[in-house]
């Protein structure tokens, strides 16, 4: 045996190892292992080998939907169909004059003709302001309390949220214009009292941020959108183009009573002077006033050389006579704002007050009797201005009939429109639990009558 010195257990173990070795040798597993290694190495090499590219002419073009490519099938003539705007979009308004034809009018409409005829007729009448005077506060409050809202004086005039409004100065007929987010202008003859009193026009492509009836000729309605300033002339039934620019317009105001020149604010912080009497669509002067944004501009009612500009946290008075392309310095600065300013306007008669709306939830009134370098706050009013992204930001506007009182929208419940005195006192809240259930961000007051119009974010107007 040669292993006599081993124990019985060790001899048995050695025997088992020898038999197992003979068994596995008979299976020839080493050849199988080598074959498996050869196959594995071959697959690995094949996986890393770069395949030969196919010739372009041999490839079959991938199939694509002819509907998505807007191509008609071969052999079938394409029907000439007008291009339909995508959901939420509208056809682009071309540059130049635009006919004053309502959006939904296919042929001549007697109702539209009646509206435009009314606008033309009331524009020829001159308001008699010989006996007009500013009422005292007590009488003014009585007038406010007598103003009511009824269901027949509520109408959806534009399709989207109201961004600007203007009211015709006529003392016989209530004619209101509203501009919305998508470039629509709605005209509503409130005095008509019928469903056919409102019509929609599309003179712009984007948001109509500012509108004014001409102070010398109310047959003209000037409207400002992002890229163009237009004049709706009812005597010619056309929306003329006054100025066009690649810069985004934000607001405008007239520099003269004859409305021939205007100061225009830009969203990039610039301001421009526009003269309607000169040919061409460009401005006369573009000036950098040092703002990052210019939201609103407003001209002093008496000293027309001064205009007020409101930006992010900047509110300043400038002299238009000294504007130049660069390096402009303000005449006065209205300090105290800690967040972005939505609007700033002079008081209507003397311009001795300025009211601002700020995102820090404060309404501020300034005494601008003298244009000192720095003007401090006269009164500060706590007011929730957190309108969010779906509501137009509040703008506090002065009542043209009362030098020391202004109107502003409110987030309070029940929904209301507030009237404040420049001292900060709340004089009146316009509300109606049955008829007013939304926030009226944009408001306009008639220059001589006890009429207030509030516009909400669904395009609906409310007339008190």
From TrEMBL:
It holds the Pfam family WD40. WD repeats lie at residues 334-376. SMART domains: WD40 (SM00320). GO terms for molecular function: DNA binding. GO terms for biological process: regulation of DNA damage checkpoint. Residues 40-64 are annotated as: Disordered. Transmembrane segments: none annotated. Interacts with CUL4A and/or CUL4B. Specifically binds 5-hydroxymethylcytosine (5hmC), suggesting that it acts as a specific reader of 5hmC. This is WD repeat-containing protein 76. It comes from Campylorhamphus procurvoides. The gene is Wdr76.
């Amino acid at each position: 045996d040669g292993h006599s010195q081993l124990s019985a257990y060790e001899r048995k173990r050695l025997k088992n190892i020898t038999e197992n070795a003979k068994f596995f040798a008979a299976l020839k597993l080493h050849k199988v292992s080598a074959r498996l290694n050869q196959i594995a190495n071959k697959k690995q090499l094949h996986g890393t080998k770069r395949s030969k590219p196919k010739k372009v002419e041999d490839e079959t073009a991938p199939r694509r939907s002819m509907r998505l490519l807007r191509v008609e099938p071969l052999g079938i003539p394409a029907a000439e169909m007008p291009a339909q705007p995508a959901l939420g979009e509208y056809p682009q308004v071309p540059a130049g004059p635009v006919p004053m034809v309502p959006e939904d009018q296919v042929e001549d409409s007697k109702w539209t003709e009646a509206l435009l005829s009314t606008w033309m007729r009331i524009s020829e009448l001159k308001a008699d302001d010989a006996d007009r005077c500013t009422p005292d506060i007590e009488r003014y409050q009585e007038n406010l309390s007598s103003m009511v809202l009824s269901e027949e004086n509520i109408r959806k005039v534009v399709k989207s949220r109201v961004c600007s409004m203007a009211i015709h100065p006529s003392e016989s007929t209530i004619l209101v214009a509203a501009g919305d987010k998508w470039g629509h202008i709605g005209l509503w003859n409130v005095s008509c009292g019928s469903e056919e009193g409102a019509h929609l026009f599309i003179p712009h492509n984007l948001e109509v941020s500012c509108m004014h009836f001409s102070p010398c000729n109310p047959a003209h309605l000037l409207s400002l959108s992002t890229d163009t300033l237009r004049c709706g002339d009812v005597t010619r039934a056309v929306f003329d183009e006054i100025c066009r620019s690649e810069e985004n317009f934000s607001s405008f105001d007239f520099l003269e009573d004859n409305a021939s020149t205007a100061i225009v604010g830009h969203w990039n912080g610039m301001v421009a002077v526009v003269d309607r009497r000169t040919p061409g669509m460009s401005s006369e002067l573009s000036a950098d006033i040092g703002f990052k944004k210019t939201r609103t501009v407003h001209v002093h009612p008496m000293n027309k050389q001064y205009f007020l500009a409101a930006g992010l946290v900047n509110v300043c008075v400038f002299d238009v006579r000294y504007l130049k392309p660069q390096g402009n310095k303000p005449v006065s600065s209205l300090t105290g704002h800690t967040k972005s300013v939505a609007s700033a306007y002079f008081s209507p008669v003397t311009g001795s007050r300025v009211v601002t709306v700020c995102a820090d939830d404060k309404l501020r009134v300034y005494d601008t009797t003298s244009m000192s370098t720095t003007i401090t706050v006269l009164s500060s009013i706590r007011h929730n201005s957190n309108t969010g992204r779906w509501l137009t930001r509040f703008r506090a506007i002065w009542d043209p009939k009362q030098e020391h009182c202004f109107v502003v929208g409110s987030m309070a419940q029940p929904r209301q429109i507030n009237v404040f005195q420049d001292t900060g006192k709340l004089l009146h809240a316009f509300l109606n639990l049955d008829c007013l259930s939304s926030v009226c961000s944009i408001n306009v007051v008639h220059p001589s009558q006890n009429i207030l119009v509030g516009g909400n974010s669904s395009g609906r107007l409310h007339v008190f």
